[in-house]
Each structure stands twice: as structure tokens, then as C-alpha cells.
Design brief:
- Helix content is about 10%, strand content about 35%.
- The protein is built from 11 helices and 73 strands.
Length: about 1200
């Protein structure tokens, strides 16, 4: 289960390209080593470079998902009385072979591959799909004339027809340097290139993966590469951009920032870059910070600019942002550099003048963009590792093992002394740092690498990114300058003995040409000096440490939580420690564990033997915790009131614990209380409320009413303390502990919180069904948007940022700490989502559209409903756990479409909006978005690198634990993927297998017998044929007609049942599915007002429903269970309502718990009060069940504003 990592790219002085992973410790030589490069510019998924032949090359990373491009052309025919439909068209008609508009002639043989880096995936074939509906064989669609609206049905007046032909080409040059071939006019070809920079991927996400590629030729001219995007990684043509002078070097940020340097030493800034004009409009000139020395090099990030002048001084530009790309003034930084490079998150790297080492700028945060200090990256290179294991000075292992084990260890070490050390070494236990020093001999056996030795030794501990190591910040430059000047004067006096400090930005140095052992011990520790051996000093072998010429961090993601291994000895500690760690096998470690465990068990038995005759003591105690909270009172007017809360926990004579929560309040100056037995509490859940740190407490009765007990704390920490305590008490009362079982039901709230419930056998069948409002839910740490599981314990989740996560088997995390959380398998998890607000305007005859509305209008800055005012200033992240990670930007991906400025138009508020203005449109709105990020922890590990939209795991299987589990997914780009290598022991799997489709998909589900169904983005349904364990991807797609006039959005397949959900919230069941005809025959309507659904391995149906009636309000996002599901009644009979509202997703695909077979009566007569059409409880009305009754309520009833929604 690899954690996600990104790469820092660099070029050494010999033109070799290396990469350094944020999770690694070694520079790795680029796979394609045939070329020598001058410089490179990288982003996450690719790198562009200029080779020594001055030509441009691109390096696209390989991945499980191929880069495909769909070519299409249309075949047109007209009907004539003699021969029927034929190829003979009228002179005024379009071409026989044309594009979709009919204006461009496109014959099949006119399509050629754009470059040698592409290959055809298949031959031409006919598309038999129109608007989500399958066409007749042959794919023809009919119309009265060209151009017109086409339909799949041939009518008496259909005079013309057309069909679409499709062919895919695939980009094949991945993990190699692909030369950018030019098809331009020879007279317009660019000169040989001198510099290149890529960025601009945040300007717009249309088309997917769009990049801005800028280059500078040897003649000083600037060129822009057109149409570079995900499905066209090479781009199409070079276009010349006029400049006010000859340009030397250029730098492009991830957004709209673009700076370049001129021969004269000035900088020029490109203005007017936006999604509609990625090349910008004009240049502005910025003077050099020093009149004597012009700018030599420049690099930009999101809103920062760093530069290097000709005297090698480093400068930072103040006041740079999208509104003022030129900034305000220069500040001199500390240190002297050949070049600097700004990467993701505005992190900065540089190459030192004197030693040509790469330095990282520590302490760069959103609040301190200039950072604090420079720190050298001392990572070794991959090909230098063979040098590190050459000596075998052995450590004494006696300090960590018992005598018996020490003897085994010594035998192992001597037996395996010749083990090769080429493999990457596991990190050594922390105990090694506390071992006694080996003596001075180990530190004197070097061969002239003393400066590297000390540099590495001084950094043996892993530094977190934002630690400043006690060094002076940028502000105190006077001391730092003095330091570096002294350091220069002492440089190279005794290179073999001098210890070179890693901080180049300190311009001041102590005049110690040679450091004594005592001085060195203050810097790191004496033990780390003592453990040095010949191997570590020979680290760079023949060619000393690498000399770098260029560095690029545009694809390197580093933030304040990153723990980098770049600043420590690359080889772990020493070669002797390596030989020790290499020699210890897992089998030997297991033997030691077993031996230690046996010794401990024997000691415990001996100690307990003396107390056997004592009588067993039984403790009966009461423990009380009290505090002051606020309570949302029961009576009108509803408001918050101060209350005293007491939790009494008592231990009974049987040793079992139970708890009662008392809430004391004042009513008409009379002291009253309410109490709750915690063994009746079904869930504790945080409530999303900007004004209060509040949480809700549900019991079965309060779940029925949709009216929980709501409590609020003064601080978030106090709320989490109460939540953790109450949650642990609830679990103790119900005797629940440890991780969830394989049959657990998982759910996710609208807030992203994860809850899990252990199902009872009576939940799905039995003489007395367990109502689902009695289910107990406990929280699991982490943050997800959707989750899927199966009964083998394989659980995957997807975050709001589409990152895939796999469950590690732990429990707890988040605010649940201590005994209620597992000690291991808890990892850091982050998620990013968008907060949206709307800018509204009304048209008036004088000023046109303006922010002056009518008195009855909505707020001019509001939420989507228009009922709440939401301005850029007063809109906060969802909770204090979230922090902003971007500025406000216009969202162009709003449903209904937008114009070039992001506006949507309508006749009035509220209405259906469209992306173009008409004569009847008097109002308009546009959506603004801002990204925020949460960092929490839980039992989840990231599954890189493909980001996902939907996921499905086979619900049940009788296979062995070692056999693979079928898992299908949809990427966020719409690709269908099949995960290989998923087992119970390795739930993350190994790799993705791409399954070809003709269009993007949005939902997929695999049934218990490998029935795979999927939904395309246009709302059409597909069935995948011939999927089996031996053929995990199947062979072809079968198009299934959708329900009449409905666009589908989700599918779920159980053992034999197939249910789909359309975009209007209607739930449909597929009739007529048999083993011989797995596609089924017709759709049957089941219910409405459904948001999400999940079909389990017993064909049970659970949904998240909207508009569920309670005693006080309607609640949106309620867990509902379909009762009466039987083989002869697969659609079920009625709905049973569980926890809600505020729920977003549920999965029951792990619950294969079957109750004992008992003959039951018709469930439709058991509980008529829980039927589909529940009336308000006060009316006491009872209605009959209806198999297709609407879910819950009428449209006229409004949602209560005081209802609990997460």
C-alpha cells in the first residue's frame, strides 16, 4: 500500500536527468538515458525538457489508464425513390463523409496519426448509441433534412440519415523522452530552443489536463505551444508571442502568473492571462532590484516571484497576486544561488553557487511565503548505493536483545556477511540511535569525503518541513550575511577535514576550519558520530557528490505535514547497520517475538501463582463527569439554553459498565432534567453549524421523530472530548469493541464523517424484523465522500478530492483516541472540497446588469437557495477543522452551462438557468468556488495515483482468502477500471486494468456472480459480458435501454437483483433477469425521492431518502431499509426508516448475515404505521402499502429550518 508521492526533477552538469521522490531518499536516474539535457520543467504527470541538441522533448509518466483520443466522422445519406437511401446527395447537401456540422469533408482514410508517438487502437466501427438510447443495428439515425434533429426511429418523412463512425488512437511514448515534432510551415518554424517552462493547469480544467507550455529560442523570441492537454500531451503547433525585447529565460506558474527576463536585466510580466486567453494580452516591464546587476534568472509560483541577479544574489518579490502580477517591491534574501525554482505550494529550491548542491527553502507557509532558511539536500544517487555496503564493521547487538537472541543474531550476521547491499534497506529501529559509540576508529577511515561526512552526520534526524532548526529567520539578515562571509574565507583550506554546514543562507560562520568531536557532538550527537563507518564516507565513490545544473519542483508536492528524508544520510545509518538489518529475516523476527512472548507468559504465571487462594474482588463503583453545555430546547420558541450535564457511569456486580446522561435545565425558574440511558443511544454525530460546536444524540424514539437531543460546547476541543467519552461509554454499554466485522454496514454523512453498524441477523429476515432505527452506529476516523465494502473485509472509500483510500483494519482515529482507538493502522488522511457561493444580478434599462436588485429579490451574494447571505468576506470553511487552500475563483462547471465570464441567465429568481443570454432573461448569477482542506487521521491508506469517481466490490464470494476479489471503479475522467491483485491480505491490490468504453461513465456495480452493470455520463445503462475470475475485464458492452425519458445516475447489483436510480430520484428494478438472459427485459418503478441506494449480497435494498416525515419536520438524507424483499417479491413491499437526516451514502454490500429460515406471514400486514406514505404522527392515520408508492410526503410540505442536517 504505497503512499502517494511526487517527484523533484534535476539535471546534473553532465546532462543526466534525475528524480527524487518525496517519499524516497535517493536520486534515481531517468529511465530513458539516451539523451543529455540542458534543463527541464515538470508538473505532476509529465515533464518537458530541452536537450543538448536544443530540441524540445516531453516525458509522460506511464499509468494504468491509457491516453486515448477519439476520432469521429459522420456518414450521410439521402433517400431517393429508386434506390432508397444511397450515397448520392443533392448538390446543396453536405459531404457524404463530414464532421458533425457537415461543413468539413472528413473521409475515413483522411485521418492520420499526428506523430510517431501514437498508434491506432482499433479499426473504424459504427456508434450504435444516440442520446443514451441504443439505435437499430447499423447505427443509423433519421431526420427530415440536413441539418435537423435526428431520431433512432425511421418515419415516413425521414428523407436523410446519418451514422457516426469512431476510431481510437492511443499515445504510446510513455516513460520515454518523446521528441516534439513540428508540422508548422518551414518558414515559421521556431529557432533552436534555450529555455522552457510549463504551468497554467489551474487556469481552467477544460479540456482535462490543459497545460501552458512556454519556450524561449536562442534568438530571444518567446513561443507558446497550442492545445497541450491530457489527450494531446504533445500539443499541436508553436505560436510566436511578441515581446518588448530579447528574452533569456521564462517562468510560468500554475495559475496566471508568467514572468520572463530580458538580456538587459529587466523582467517582463504577462498580463491578461485567463481561461479564454491563456496566452495573455500584453507585457509590463519590472526593473531589476539592483541597478548594477540585472536579473539573470526568475521563477514564479501561485503568487510569489523569486529571482537571481547577475551577482548571484537571491531576491523575493512582494505583493504579487492575480490582480497585481507585477508586485510592489524586491526584498533581498540570504544566500547566493545559480538558480531558484518555485514548485507546488510555493515551495522553493535552489542550486548553490560554490558547491552546485541543491537547497530546499524551509519554512515556506501561506503566512510566510519567503520561508526561513536554506537546507541542503544530501540524498545520494541510486548508482552510488553499491559503494555504501563495502565495509562490514559490525555493531554489537547485545544492547537490544537477550543473551539467547544475541547469540542467534551473531550467527546470522557472520553467516550472511557477504549479502549484497544493492537492495533498498528498511529503516532501522529508533533504538539504534541510543547504542554506545563504536569508537573513533570508524570516523577516521575515510578517503577524503570529510565534508560530506559531517554534512550528513549533522542531519541524521529527519527534519519536518516547517522546523527552523533554531536558525535565524529571513528578517535577521545582518548576522546571516556575516556568517557566510566568514564561511567563504575558510572554504577549501582543508577540504578533507572541514565540516561544511548545510545552511547556505547563513552568511555568517564561526571560524572553525576543523571541528573537534566536542563541537560536533553539540550539533547532532556523539552516538551518531560513533556509528560512522567507511561505507558512509565512501558514499559518492568515484565522482564525489553530484554537481547540479538545473532543478524543477513544479511536480513536487510538499506541505507543512511532509516528513522528508532528503536531509539525512541516504544509506540509513552505516553499512554495518545495513548488514545487520539485511541479515534479519521476517522468520527470525517472528521467532524472537514468539520466544519473548513465551518468557513473558511464564513470568505472568509465576507471579499469579502466589495469589490463587485470594477471593475474587468485585468492584461496584460509580464514576461521574460533569460539565456545562448548551441544549437546543424542546419547546417553542426553540433556542439554545445553558444546561448542566452529568454522565454517571456505574459498574454492576457482573463487572459490566452502563451509563446515564443527565441534562439539568431551568423551566419557569424550576429545576428539571431529562436523562438518557446510553445503552439506548443509537448514534452520536457532529452537526455542521457555523455558529456552534454542536452534536446530536439519537435514540430510537428520537429517530422516529427526527428530533435528536442537540448539545453544544464552547470550544471544538470540549465538544470532541464529550463525543469521545460518550462514544466510548455507548460502546461499553453495548459490549462493542475492536474493529468492525466483515459484515458491517458502512455509511457516510453529508459532512464526510464515517459511521459503521454491526448488523443483527434479524435485520433482513426472521419472524420479528429488527427496525433499522434501533441500529447502533459508531464513528470511524477519517473523511470520505463515498464508501464500498464486501463480506471479505475489503473496504474502499473515495474522498471529496476523488482520492482513493483503502481500509487498514484499524478502528478509531479522528477525535477518538486512547483505548477506543487501535494503536496501529491509523494514518494521516487529508481531503479537499469546494465551498460555493453565488453572485446574483438583475437587469435594469439604465445600467444593464447590476447588483441592485428588487426589494423582494434574493441577496446579491447568497447560497444556492438565495435564502442566506454569503459574501466572500463572511463565508467561512465548513468547520474549524478545515482551512482555506485557495482564493475565490469563478466556477465554469455549473450545471446548465455558463458564458465566457461564468454567468448563467434566467427570466427570474429562482428558475432554470442556462449559459447564454436571451431577450427574456432579466436576472443572472455565477458561482464562485474556494477550496478548503481538512487533515485528520483514521484507518485509511491512500491508493495512488488514479483518482476515482465511483467504486464497486463484488459483494460475496466463497473463494479462498488468497483468491482475488473483483473490484471495479470509474475514474474522475470517466474511464472504467478493473483492479487486479485485490485479496483479503492485500485489499489495496496491485494495478489497474483499463476497460475500453466509447464515452465517459459515472457509475459501476458488480454482482455476486460477476454481473457488471454501468451507467454512462449521458444516462444510458450498459451490461458487461463474460466477466469471470479468469477474464476479469470481460469482453464487450451491451447497451440496455433506460426507463422511458429518464437519465440514470447510479446502479447497484446484488446476488440476482439489479436496481438503478435516475437523476429525478426514482428507483427502478430490472425485471426478467435470468442466467441465460442476464440483461433482463423491462424496468419497474419502485419509489421516488431517493438520493443513493445500495443492494447487498442477499438482494437487500437500502437507500438514502429525502423528504422523510418526522413529528417536527421533513428530513433530507435518511437511511431507509426496504422490507419484504423475498425471491418472489424482489422489489420488496414497504420502507422502514432509520437514522437521518444528513446522510449521504450507505453500503450494505458486506452484510451477508442470514437469519435462520422461519416461515413468515406477509410483512405488509405487520407494521402498517411504517408504510411508504407515512402521515404526520399526530393524525394517527394509517395507509395501505403500495409497491410503487411515492416515498414519504407531498411536495407542499416545507423543510423545517430547525431540523438536524449534517
Amino acid at each position: 500500500m504505497a503512499m502517494s508521492s511526487s517527484l523533484l526533477w534535476a539535471v546534473d552538469i553532465f546532462g543526466r536527468v534525475y528524480t527524487l521522490s518525496t517519499a524516497g531518499q535517493y536520486w534515481e536516474l531517468c529511465k530513458d538515458t539516451q539523451l543529455e539535457f540542458k534543463r527541464v520543467s515538470a508538473v505532476k504527470h509529465c515533464c518537458w525538457g530541452i536537450a543538448c541538441d536544443h530540441q524540445v522533448y516531453t516525458y509522460v509518466f506511464s499509468g494504468d489508464v491509457p491516453i486515448r483520443y477519439q476520432e469521429e466522422t459522420y456518414e450521410n445519406q439521402r433517400w431517393n425513390p429508386i434506390g432508397g437511401f444511397c450515397e448520392k446527395l443533392m448538390p446543396s447537401d453536405r459531404w457524404q463523409w463530414s464532421d458533425v456540422s457537415g461543413l468539413k469533408h472528413q473521409q475515413l482514410d483522411s485521418f492520420t496519426l499526428p506523430s510517431p508517438h501514437w498508434e491506432w487502437e482499433s479499426d473504424w466501427y459504427v456508434d450504435e448509441n444516440i442520446g443514451g438510447e441504443p439505435t437499430e443495428k447499423g447505427g443509423w439515425t433519421y431526420a427530415i433534412d440536413f441539418p435537423s434533429t435526428y431520431t433512432k426511429d425511421k418515419k415516413w418523412n425521414s428523407c436523410v440519415r446519418r451514422r457516426r463512425w469512431i476510431r481510437y488512437r492511443r499515445y504510446k511514448s510513455r516513460d520515454v523522452w518523446a521528441k516534439i515534432t513540428s508540422h508548422d510551415d518551414p518558414d515559421q518554424l521556431p529557432d533552436p530552443f534555450n529555455d522552457i517552462s510549463i504551468g497554467g493547469w489551474e487556469i481552467t480544467d477544460e479540456p482535462v489536463g490543459r497545460l501552458s507550455v512556454w519556450a524561449v529560442s536562442l534568438q530571444g523570441r518567446v513561443w507558446y505551444r497550442e492545445n497541450v492537454c491530457h489527450h494531446n500531451p504533445e500539443g499541436s503547433t508553436w505560436s510566436l508571442v511578441a515581446t518588448p525585447g530579447e528574452v533569456v529565460q521564462i517562468s510560468c506558474g500554475p495559475y496566471d502568473l508568467l514572468w520572463a527576463t530580458l538580456w538587459e536585466g529587466q523582467a517582463i510580466v504577462r498580463e491578461g492571462i485567463d481561461r479564454n486567453n491563456p496566452q495573455g494580452i500584453s507585457w509590463s516591464i519590472v526593473e531589476s532590484p539592483s541597478s548594477e546587476n540585472g536579473i539573470m534568472h526568475i521563477s514564479v509560483g501561485v503568487d510569489v516571484v523569486w529571482s537571481v541577479t547577475k551577482d548571484r544574489k537571491v531576491w523575493f518579490r512582494r505583493g504579487v497576486n492575480s490582480h497585481n502580477p507585477c508586485g510592489t517591491s524586491w526584498i533581498e534574501m540570504v544566500g547566493e544561488m545559480m538558480m531558484v525554482n518555485v514548485g507546488l505550494n510555493n515551495q522553493v529550491w535552489g542550486i548553490g553557487c560554490d558547491d552546485r548542491a541543491i537547497y530546499f527553502r524551509q519554512g515556506v507557509t501561506p503566512s510566510e511565503l519567503s520561508g526561513k532558511t536554506w537546507k541542503a539536500i544530501v540524498s545520494g544517487r541510486e548508482n552510488d548505493r553499491s559503494q555504501t555496503g563495502s565495509s562490514t564493521s559490525l555493531l554489537s547487538a547485545g544492547c537490544f536483545f537477550t543473551d539467547d537472541i544475541q547469540n542467534q543474531t551473531n550467527a546470522i550476521i557472520h553467516g550472511d556477511a557477504d549479502t549484497s547491499s544493492d537492495t533498498e534497506l528498511p529503516s532501522v529501529s529508533v533504538d539504534l540511535a541510543n547504542t554506545p559509540p563504536l569508537g573513533a576508529a570508524a570516523s577516521n577511515s575515510g578517503n577524503g569525503a570529510g565534508n560530506q561526512t559531517a554534512e550528513i552526520s549533522a542531519n541524521l534526524t529527519v527534519d519536518s518541513l516547517d522546523s527552523d532548526q533554531g536558525e535565524a529567520s529571513v528578517a535577521s539578515t545582518s548576522n546571516e550575511k556575516a556568517y557566510l562571509e566568514k564561511h567563504k574565507s575558510s572554504t577549501n583550506q582543508n577540504p578533507s577535514a572541514e565540516l561544511q554546514w548545510t545552511n547556505i543562507d547563513l552568511k555568517e560562520a564561526q571560524k572553525h576550519p576543523v571541528l573537534s568531536v566536542s563541537t560536533f557532538a553539540e550539533t547532532s550527537s556523539l552516538s551518531s558520530l560513533g556509528m560512522f563507518s567507511v561505507g558512509a564516507e565512501e558514499q559518492y565513490g568515484a565522482d564525489e557528490h553530484p554537481l547540479w545544473a538545473w532543478v524543477s519542483g513544479g511536480g513536487c508536492l510538499v506541505d507543512s505535514h511532509s516528513l522528508l528524508k532528503w536531509f539525512t544520510v541516504p544509506s540509513g545509518l552505516t553499512s554495518s547497520v545495513q548488514s545487520l538489518s539485511l541479515s534479519i529475516t521476517p522468520a527470525q523476527t517472528a521467532a524472537w517475538r514468539k520466544q519473548i512472548f513465551q518468557q513473558l507468559s511464564e513470568r505472568t504465571k509465576r507471579e499469579l501463582e502466589n495469589f490463587r487462594h485470594y477471593e475474587q474482588a468485585i468492584e461496584q463503583s460509580v464514576w461521574v463527569k460533569t460539565g456545562t453545555l448548551q441544549w437546543w430546547r424542546n419547546w417553542k420558541p426553540h433556542k439554545w439554553m445553558d444546561v448542566r450535564v452529568a454522565l454517571e457511569q456505574f459498574t454492576g456486580s457482573d463487572g459490566m459498565r452502563d451509563s446515564i446522561l443527565f441534562i439539568y435545565y431551568m423551566y419557569h425558574e424550576e429545576k428539571k432534567y431529562i436523562h438518557v440511558f446510553l445503552n439506548e443511544v443509537t448514534i452520536l454525530v457532529e452537526v455542521l453549524n457555523e455558529a456552534k460546536h454542536s452534536f446530536a444524540l439519537y435514540t430510537p424514539e428520537r429517530t422516529k421523530q427526527r428530533w435528536p437531543i442537540r448539545l453544544a460546547a464552547a470550544t471544538e476541543q470540549e465538544m470532541h472530548d464529550w463525543l469521545a467519552l460518550l462514544s466510548m461509554s455507548c460502546c461499553e454499554s453495548r459490549r462493542i469493541q475492536g474493529p468492525p466485522s466483515h459484515h458491517a454496514i458502512w455509511s457516510v454523512t453529508c459532512k464526510g464523517d464515517i459511521f459503521v453498524s454491526e448488523p443483527s441477523p434479524e435485520l433482513e429476515a426472521g419472524p420479528h424484523l429488527m427496525p433499522c432505527d434501533q441500529m447502533f452506529w459508531r464513528q470511524v476516523g477519517g473523511h470520505l465522500r463515498t464508501i464500498e465494502c464486501n463480506n471479505r473485509g475489503v473496504v474502499w472509500g473515495i474522498g471529496y478530492d476523488h482520492t482513493a483510500w483503502v481500509y487498514t483494519g484499524g478502528y478509531g482515529g479522528g477525535f477518538i483516541q486512547g483505548l477506543a482507538s487501535s494503536a496501529d493502522n491509523i494514518y494521516t488522511q487529508s481531503d479537499v472540497k469546494c465551498v460555493y457561493i453565488y453572485e446574483n444580478q438583475r437587469w435594469n434599462p439604465v445600467t444593464g446588469y447590476s447588483s441592485r436588485g428588487l426589494p423582494t429579490d434574493r441577496y446579491m451574494w447568497s447560497d444556492a437557495s438565495g435564502l442566506q447571505e454569503c459574501t466572500k468576506m463572511n463565508t467561512k470553511p465548513p468547520s474549524p477543522q478545515w482551512s482555506w487552500v485557495s482564493d475565490w475563483y469563478i466556477d465554469f462547471n455549473t450545471s446548465g452551462g455558463t458564458d465566457r465570464e461564468g454567468w448563467q441567465y434566467a427570466a427570474d429568481f429562482p428558475a432554470s438557468y442556462h449559459g447564454h443570454k436571451t431577450m427574456k432573461d432579466f436576472v443572472r448569477r455565477r458561482r464562485w468556488a474556494r477550496k478548503c482542506k481538512i487533515v485528520t487521521n483514521g484507518p485509511w491508506l491512500e491508493v495512488p495515483p488514479v483518482t476515482l469517481w465511483d467504486i464497486s466490490i463484488i459483494p460475496s464470494s466463497d473463494a479462498d482468502d488468497e483468491e482475488s476479489v473483483a473490484l471495479w471503479a470509474i475514474s474522475d475522467k470517466g474511464d472504467v477500471l478493473c483492479r487486479l491483485g485485490v485479496t483479503q491480505q492485500n485489499p489495496a491490490g496491485t494495478s489497474w486494468l483499463h476497460v475500453g468504453t466509447d464515452q465517459p461513465f459515472i457509475s459501476v456495480s458488480i454482482g455476486a456472480f460477476y454481473q457488471v452493470w454501468a451507467i454512462a455520463r449521458d444516462g444510458s445503462a450498459f451490461y458487461r459480458g463474460s466477466v469471470s475470475p479468469k477474464k476479469p475485464a470481460g469482453d464487450c458492452w451491451y447497451h440496455i435501454p433506460s426507463p422511458q425519458k429518464q437519465k440514470l445516475k447510479q446502479v447497484s447489483v446484488g446476488r440476482t437483483s439489479v436496481f438503478v436510480l435516475d437523476k429525478n430520484g426514482n428507483l427502478w428494478y430490472r425485471q426478467g433477469i435470468t442466467p441465460s438472459y442476464p440483461q433482463g427485459s423491462t424496468w419497474d418503478h419502485v419509489s421516488n425521492n431517493i438520493r443513493k441506494m445500495s443492494v447487498g449480497p442477499l438482494d437487500q435494498v437500502w437507500v438514502i431518502a429525502d423528504k422523510v416525515q418526522g413529528s417536527h419536520s421533513l428530513s433530507c438524507g435518511t437511511v431507509c431499509h426496504r422490507t419484504g424483499v423475498q425471491p418472489l417479491e424482489p422489489k420488496g413491499l414497504a420502507w422502514d426508516y432509520g437514522i437521518g437526516g444528513g446522510w449521504e451514502h450507505i453500503t450494505v454490500r458486506g452484510n451477508a448475515t442470514e437469519a435462520p429460515r422461519v416461515i413468515t406471514h406477509d410483512t405488509s400486514e405487520e407494521d402498517p404505521a411504517r408504510s411508504m406514505d407515512l402521515e404526520d404522527e399526530e393524525s394517527k392515520g394509517k395507509t395501505e402499502h403500495s409497491k410503487t408508492a411515492p416515498l414519504m410526503v407531498t411536495e407542499e410540505q416545507e423543510l423545517d429550518r430547525s431540523a438536524v442536517n449534517c
